[in-house]
Amino acid sequence: MDLKKELGEKIKRFRKIRGLTQEQLAEMIDISARNLSNIEQGISFAKAETLENILKSLNISTQDLFSNNHIKSNEELLNEINKYVELAKNDNKKLELIYKILKSVMEEV
User: pTM of the predicted model, to two decimals?
Assistant: First the structure.
């Protein structure tokens, strides 16, 4: 996968986790929704200023956006997901958030 596509997919993923539409994020970072769509699809690359605004608006670090630490085996991923669910099992608010995130991701597929 090329860098533009990978970066665009990560931005889209973080945007959806935050519960934002393309229009909402585009307004927050002062670009058109069409431009954001092109960035998320890997058609175009964001300017440095736009990337800075994306990081601030999504409350993520450059490491979150550019790191490949997310590449893990299915077994590792399932173990980590189960660990977080176990930690949150007595906290309804956290469980609801985990549910919403998982549901959002699964609806995307």
Answer: 0.64
Burial string for 63-89 (b: 16+ CB within 10 Å, else e) reads eebeeeeeeeeeeeeeeeeeeeeeeee
Which domains are assigned to the chain?
3-66 (1.10.260.40), 74-108 (no CATH)
Q: What DSSP string describes 55-107?
A: HHHHT--HHHHH--TT---HHHHHHHHHHHHHHHTT-HHHHHHHHHHHHHHHH
The alpha carbons of the chain give a radius of gyration, in whole angstroms, of 15
- Distance between CA atoms of residues 16 and 107, nearest Å: 11
Q: Inform me whether the pLDDT recorded for 69 exceeds 70.
A: no
d(CA 53, CA 64): 14
Residue 50 is encoded by which pair of tokens?
């736009």
DSSP 31: S
pLDDT for 86: 93
Give 44's DSSP letter: S
